[in-house]
Design a protein that fits this description.
- This protein is mainly α.
- The chain folds into 2 domains: 2-198, no CATH class; 221-389, no CATH class.
- The protein contains 17 helices and 4 strands.
- The chain has helices at 2-32, 44-72, 118-156, 160-183, 194-203, 205-218, 222-228, 230-245, 251-265, 274-284, 287-295, 300-311, 317-330, 336-349, 355-358, 370-373, 378-389; strands at residues 77-82, 85-90, 93-98, 106-110.
- Strands 3-2-1-4 form a 4-stranded antiparallel β-sheet, with helices on one face.
- Helix 12 runs antiparallel to helix 13 (317-330).
């Protein structure tokens, strides 16, 4: 019932915001501005250039809204991606990069090396929530400020071309703001918009723990993160105990299980935690869950890592070959990530010698957001260690 009420409230608020922006823009253009003939007859390419400039500006300020909120709450930034550009902090210096991102949006990544204790966790959770919601708020502020400035310029300039330019700016910015706010409501496995993310952050500490743990990999000191994140690792393992009691197989849970398995395979953990062993047994005993993992683009990497784990022990080696056979019959190495994972599993099972391929860093692709993660050394260190050992 509460979920239904929240969904209705979310739709009403979102619809209200979008409706207000769209309605205001239409009414302003129709009733407030009396457009003389030829007023909107700027060359087509000029309007396109205005739209492109406005889009880059709006997305950039949206992401910087996230970043500045992190900073104002005491958390340093690691990187800010906006459309095809990025600012990444390397060796304590900010570097501007032209990226190969295939997205129209962006992402702000804080430099969270570790979480020291419960107080530090709560502080970072609060800062995280504020930073996430500041993106949409920034978009609204930008729309209000630039629309107001444009209205003033339209009213007090006599140049029809300048007026036409600012009118084009209002229309472009209104449409882009609607787009940014609409995408902020998205909630999918791989992509969570700002509004649902804010709700999850406020109510789900386990989700925050997973995020903070992942940020450690992308931080400026990923090795130090491994050494100092003992509190966070223990917290996550305790939470997994509770998840296991409820037989939880949500993607949050499966993703962190995979992360800890990889740490063990890479030699960072001397022993695989018992709760992870229990979860693997649970997965193997439930064909539906195992099938879901194998057939999911997001979860399939866990299937590969379970095979690798089973192959380490003599008494489960036969099972690893059985799972590999099922995998080969289900999916093809038709993406760069799958190609890499198949090469790695073939090397481990002794099916084919792929050592040279695996030792070439540019071939290492383990994430569906590789185009972002590839700029961070911590993204590669586990895979490099695993490939050196196999």
């Amino acid at each position: 019932m509460k979920k239904k009420k929240y969904r209705i409230l979310k739709e009403l608020v979102g619809g209200g915001i979008i409706g207000f922006i769209l309605g205001f823009s239409i009414l302003f253009i129709r009733d407030y501005i009396h457009i003389p003939e030829g007023f909107v007859k700027l060359p087509f390419y000029i309007n396109i250039l205005i739209f492109i400039f406005t889009f880059f500006l709006a997305v950039t300020l949206h992401e910087f809204g996230h970043a500045l909120s992190f900073i104002s709450n005491g958390i340093k930034m690691r990187a800010i991606f906006f459309t095809i550009f990025a600012l990444i902090k390397e060796d304590n210096k900010w570097k501007f990069k032209l990226t190969s991102m295939k997205t129209v949006g962006g992402i702000a990544i804080p430099d969270i090396i570790s979480v020291k204790d419960e107080k530090d966790f709560q502080s970072k959770q609060e800062a995280f929530g504020k930073a996430v919601i500041m993106g949409p708020i920034s978009s609204l502020i930008v729309w209000i400020v630039l629309t107001f400035i444009s209205i003033v310029m339209i009213k007090f300039t006599s140049s029809i071309y300048i007026r036409a330019g600012f009118l084009s700016l209002i229309l472009s910015l209104s449409g882009i703001t609607i787009f940014l706010l609409a995408t902020s409501f998205i909630k999918k496995d791989l992509v969570i918009g700002d509004f649902p993310a804010y709700k999850i952050i406020k109510s789900d500490s386990f989700f925050c723990g997973i995020q903070f743990y992942g940020y450690g990999y992308l931080s400026s000191q990923p090795e130090k993160s491994r050494d100092e994140n003992t509190y966070l690792r223990e917290y996550i393992l305790e939470e997994l105990e509770e998840k296991y009691k409820n037989k939880d197989s949500h993607w949050f849970t499966l993703s962190i299980i995979d992360t800890i398995i990889v740490e063990y395979l890479a030699g960072y953990l001397e022993k695989l935690p018992m709760i992870i062993e229990n979860y693997i047994s649970f997965i193997l005993e439930n064909p539906d869950i195992l099938s879901k993992i194998r057939s999911s683009v997001m979860f399939e990497i866990l299937y590969f890592h379970i095979i690798m784990l089973l192959h380490r022990e003599e008494y489960t080696r036969e099972k690893s070959f059985e799972l590999y056979k099922n995998l080969k019959n289900t999916i093809e190495p038709n993406t760069p990530k799958r190609k890499y994972l198949f090469k790695q599993i073939e090397q481990i099972l002794g099916i084919r010698d792929n050592k040279d391929y695996l030792m070439d860093r540019k071939n290492i692709i383990t994430s569906d957001v590789h185009q972002i993660y590839k700029y961070f050394h911590g993204y590669y260190i586990d895979e490099i260690r695993i490939n050196e050992m196999i």
